[in-house]
Specification:
Structural class: alpha+beta
Mean pLDDT: 79
Strand content: 25-35%
Largest sheet: 9 strands, mixed
Helix content: 10-25%
Strand order of the largest sheet: 2-1-14-4-5-12-9-8-7
Low-confidence stretches: 25-45, 131-135, 186-203
Order of helices and strands: EEHHHHEEHHEEEHHEEEEEEHEE
Radius of gyration: 18 Å
C-alpha cells in the first residue's frame, strides 16, 4: 500500500482532552510493508545512521532549529540557554534545573521519559503486545526466557518518544543495576502506525536491556530502544554504581525512540489514565517526572 501518514489520537493529561498529532517523520516510515521501500531499508542500517548523525552534527544545520521549534510549538524557555553548535546538539537539549520534578511520595513512580505512554496492569506469558498478528513476549524483548521469567503476569509501561521530545531518560526510583546487555541491530521508526505494520520492530531494533533492583517498585526490566536514526543510546550513569530517583540514566542521540518497563506481578500498577486509554489504542502524553505508576507493596 502507498504511504499515507495519518494523525495519531493521543490523550493529553495536562489539557485533559484528546488531541491529534502528526509525526514529524518521512513518508516512507508509514509504508504498510517497510522492507518493500528501498529508501527505508537503507535508512534502517547502522551505516546510514552514523552518516546521518555526522550530517546533523554539522554547524550549518543550526538553521533547521528555529523552523522546527516554530512548527511544533516547542517552549524553549524550559530549556538551558546556550548556543547550540548543530541541530543534533540542540536535539539533546536539557531542561533548566527545576523545570521537571519527580514525586516526593516514594510509592509513586515518576515518568522516566517525557513521552507518550501505554500501560497494562498484567502481561501474561500468552499475551500479545499491542501489534497485529505477532506475539512480542517479554522474552523476545528482554533477550531470553530466564531474564523475562520474574516479569510474567506483571505490569508493563511502554513509552514512545517523538522527535519533538526531550530525549534524556531518568531513573524512576533509587536502586542499582543487576544485569545489562545490548541487543538488536536494525533501526526502524517506533511510531504507533509503523508498529502495527511491522510487528517485530521492538525485537529488531537496537536496544539496551537493563535489570534494575529498585527500592519501592521491586525488580524492573528496563529496556531502551533505538529507533529511526537513533543508533546511539548513550549511558550517562555508570551501570556499576547505585542510582537515585530522577537521576539521568541515558540519552538518545537523534530521532525517535522508545522505553519499556516490565514489573514483577503485584509490585505496582500503571496510572489510572494510562490504563484507561490504552485499550482504546490511545497513548497518554506524560511529562518527565509526572506520576506513571503506583506501588502496591504497601497498599
Amino acid at each position: 500500500m502507498a504511504a499515507d501518514p495519518k494523525p495519531l489520537k493521543l490523550w493529553d493529561r495536562d489539557k485533559g482532552k484528546a488531541v491529534e498529532e502528526f509525526m514529524p517523520d518521512h513518508q516512507t516510515t508509514y509504508e504498510t510493508r517497510p522492507l518493500r521501500a528501498p529508501g527505508q531499508w537503507l535508512r534502517a542500517t547502522p551505516l546510514f545512521d552514523k552518516l546521518y548523525a555526522l550530517y546533523q552534527d554539522a554547524p550549518w544545520t543550526r538553521r533547521n532549529i528555529d523552523p522546527f521549534v516554530r512548527e511544533y510549538h516547542i517552549d524553549m524557555s524550559e530549556f538551558e540557554e546556550r548556543r547550540y553548535r548543530s541541530y543534533a546538539d540542540w536535539f539533546v537539549r536539557e531542561f533548566k534545573p527545576g523545570k521537571r520534578r519527580f514525586p516526593e511520595d516514594p510509592g509513586t513512580m515518576g515518568a522516566p521519559a517525557e513521552a507518550r505512554y501505554f500501560g497494562w496492569e498484567r502481561f501474561g506469558p500468552e499475551q500479545r503486545f499491542p501489534v497485529k498478528g505477532q506475539s512480542l513476549a517479554a522474552a523476545d524483548i528482554l533477550g531470553n526466557a530466564e531474564r523475562a521469567k520474574p516479569f510474567l503476569g506483571g505490569p508493563v509501561l511502554l513509552m514512545r518518544l517523538s522527535p519533538v521530545d526531550y530525549h534524556h531518560v531518568h531513573y524512576p526510583d533509587d536502586g542499582r543495576t543487576l544485569d545489562h546487555e545490548r541487543l538488536g541491530h536494525s533501526i526502524w521508526t517506533v511510531s504507533w502506525t509503523a508498529v502495527h505494520n511491522k510487528p517485530d520492530i521492538y525485537i529488531r531494533n537496537e536496544r539496551q536491556v537493563n535489570i534494575l533492583e529498585t527500592e519501592h517498585f521491586g525488580r524492573l526490566g528496563f529496556v531502551e530502544f533505538g529507533a529511526l536514526t537513533v543508533g546511539r543510546i548513550v549511558q550517562r550513569h555508570p551501570l556499576d554504581r547505585p542510582f537515585r530517583r530522577g537521576e539521568q540514566k541515558s540519552v538518545f542521540k537523534f530521532g525517535g525512540s522508545a522505553v519499556a518497563i516490565f514489573g514483577e506481578p503485584g509490585a505496582w500498577r500503571p496510572a489510572d489514565d494510562i490504563r484507561e486509554h490504552t485499550p482504546q489504542g490511545m497513548e497518554t502524553i506524560v511529562r518527565l517526572g509526572e506520576p506513571v505508576a503506583i506501588s502496591l507493596r504497601s497498599a
